[in-house]
């Protein structure tokens, strides 16, 4: 009984916190799934992302100014081309392009709850999902597999030609769509 009360207190505290993400707001495409999970008595979310495209300062540890560009939406070739042009004027070091997959961290009341949601996530296509238990709480990381990352710019110059950049945009957009489909599938299962 004490653990259930403790879990509910942790949940209340977590869900009342101000958003500490570097964006400062919910990722709209995964918000409905998070809301549905947070309404369940045995779960609450601690962080989430529906997938995104970013340009990052290369070789720098995670800092608030690491992002040069970030979107949770599809991109166009022209948008990426213009963004790279602007970045190249301001930033002369290595720039990395990344398309990252959907990810969700969920606290669970019990280990059995963790295994249940991980099983549902895997059925929904979130293949890199598992239980991460800590001393304080049982956590799961639900993670999909769509991602790509590579250097795209150095010394203010784009390292790849337009044909390759167009292919990157097409592939990144297709991977984002697959992420969003998996978010919707999981929402239908929880």
Commentary on this structure:
The protein has 190 residues and is an alpha+beta fold. It has one domain (2-189): tRNA wybutosine-synthesizing-like (SSo0622-like fold, 2-Layer Sandwich), CATH 3.30.1960.10. The chain contains five helices and nine strands, in the order ααβββαββαββββα. The chain has helices spanning 2-16, 28-38, 77-90, 111-123, 162-189; strands at residues 43-49, 52-57, 67-71, 95-100, 103-108, 130-133, 138-143, 148-154, 157-158. The strands form two sheets. It has a five-stranded antiparallel beta sheet with strand order 3-2-4-8-9. The chain has a four-stranded antiparallel beta sheet with strand order 1-5-7-6. Helix 2 packs parallel to helix 5. The radius of gyration is 19 Å and the shape is elongated. The relative contact order is 0.18. The mean pLDDT is 91.
Approximate strand percentage:
25-35%
| CATH A-level architecture | 2-Layer Sandwich
Q: Mean of the pLDDT scores?
A: 91
Per DSSP E runs of 2 or more residues, the count of β-strands stands at 9
Total discrete domains: 1
| Main beta sheet | 5 strands, antiparallel
Number of helices: 5
Structural class, by secondary structure, is: alpha+beta
- Alpha carbon gap, first and last residue: 24 Å
Reading the helices and strands in chain order gives HHEEEHEEHEEEEH
In CATH, what is the homologous superfamily? Answer: tRNA wybutosine-synthesizing-like
Quaternary state reads single chain
The coarse silhouette is elongated
